[in-house]
Amino acid sequence: MFVIFRLIKRLKFRKIVYKDESSNVVNGIAKARALYKRLTVEAHPDRNPNHREEAEDLMSRISANRYNYDTLILLEEEVKEKLN
User: Fold this and answer.
1) Fewer CB atoms inside 10 Å of the end CB: C or N, the chain?
2) Per-residue b/e over 48-68, b at no fewer than 16 CB within 10 Å?
3) Phi/psi at 28 (nearest 5 deg)?
4) Is the pTM of this model over 0.85?
5) What is the C-alpha separation between 70 and 77, in angstroms, rounded?
6) What is the pLDDT of residues 32-65, one digit of tens each?
7) Hey, how many other C-beta atoms are within 10 angstroms of the C-beta on 3?
8) Cα distance between residue 71 and residue 73, in whole Å
9) CA end-to-end span of the chain, whole Å?
10) Which residues of 8-31 are buried (b: 16+ CB within 10 A; e: fewer)?
């Protein structure tokens, strides 16, 4: 009985870990580079002279999260909201 309980608990934990972390790692490898390049072009301070301070802040946050795909998705929405 105890063995079955431990097995069920382990499977639940694996689903949580694999769902959250593994998808971000795979997307970070596969998709983050293209998204990073696109966001740096859109949020560059020279391209947004009217919103220079906001663009500089966004660029620093984009550069800090260069390989984190989930955070880059959130920053993409913020770039569209603030700079367009």
Assistant:
1) N
2) beebeebbeebbebbeebeeb
3) -60, -40
4) no
5) 11
6) 899 999 999 999 999 999 999 999 999 999 999 9
7) 7
8) 5
9) 59
10) eeeeeeeeeeeeeeeebeebbeee
